[in-house]
Amino acid sequence: MIRIEGLTKSYGATQALRGVSFEVHRGQVVGFLGPNGAGKSTTMKILAGFVTPTSGTARVNGIDVTADPVASRRLIGYLPENNPLYEEMMVRDFLDFVAEVRGIPRERRAERIRNAVDRCGLRAVLGKDIHQLSKGYRQRVGLAQAIVHDPDLLILDEPTTGLDPNQIVEIRSLIKELGREKTVILSTHILSEVQSTCGRVLIINDGRLVADDAPERLGKGEGGTVTVVLASRTGALLQADAVRAMLEGVAGVTGVEMAEGEGAGTLGFRLRYGAEDIRRSLFEAAVRADLCLLEVKRQHVSLEETFRKLTGGEASRGPQDPGTPSLAA
After folding, report:
1. Is the torsion defined by CA of 274, 277, 279, 284 positive or negative?
2. pLDDT by 10s per residue, the chain, length 329
3. pTM score above 0.90
4. Is residue 315 part of a domain?
5. Number of domain units in the chain
6. 205 is in which domain, residue-wise?
7. Within this chain, do residues 27 and 53 fall inside the same structural domain, yes or no?
8. Is residue 324 part of a domain?
9. Claim to verify: residue 201 and residue 270 sit in the same structural domain
């Protein structure tokens, strides 16, 4: 559905895109992430035909968006970040206007509008002026205008910006439903939104594509944390500093910090690790130290942590200082 090759865009001395290339197949829901100024909106505007690239090509269903913008736009539904609407118009009149501009024949217009209204839950506000609507309903109107011509590709730029939590859930559910039958490119700063709606994530930073994978796989190979709760097998009183020193000596552990235990006689720790799975080494070390592992809970690096690392937002953290060598008093 989308093929972008070597895309660049310069605004004077500022390079917004630096050779971006990727493909999106039919039926995929793709999250497009990046910090402010990374080039997300520029890429989406080029796809939608609103901005011309400096070099490179962008194709929608094989159509070059620069060479034949009218044909490519027929395949695209676009919801910009600022969701421009004619606020003095009634919802019904606005959608009829958009359908006419989109070239939908008059005999099919009522059916297309009805489908968009039903999909976006707008029937109760059809007779209201757009300026009377809440932010959530305005976003629904924006989505309705994007799908009224039944496009193959939906480009949604920050569709939940400014919404309250209930409205976010509603719009997110609508996007998931639309993604069952259309290709969707979703740009957002809300990473939980990507994890719940997208099967693939593209991360762009400083005009370059730095990651492309499924959300659940992006953090794999980058490590994570293991939370453990320990107790002495002999009933001896544990010394926190000594146990921490032992854990810091486990192969693959990059940091240790205190966590919550399970009552008297137990200690809890959170261990950070890199690409290597530390659980086997952790078990062996506990046996040698005469400790009992009451709980072992592993968590991979989160999408947020991966995003921060790839876009330069991760603060470095060093391991804790080692404690005394004895484990029990």
Report:
1. negative
2. 999 999 999 999 999 999 999 999 988 999 999 888 899 989 999 999 889 999 999 999 999 999 999 999 999 999 988 898 999 999 999 999 999 999 999 999 999 999 999 988 899 999 999 999 998 899 999 999 999 999 999 999 888 877 788 878 888 888 888 888 899 999 887 787 888 888 899 999 999 999 998 887 776 656 678 999 999 998 888 999 999 999 999 999 999 999 988 888 999 999 988 878 889 999 999 999 999 999 999 877 667 777 887 787 644 333 333 333 333 43
3. no
4. no
5. 2
6. 2-218
7. yes
8. no
9. no
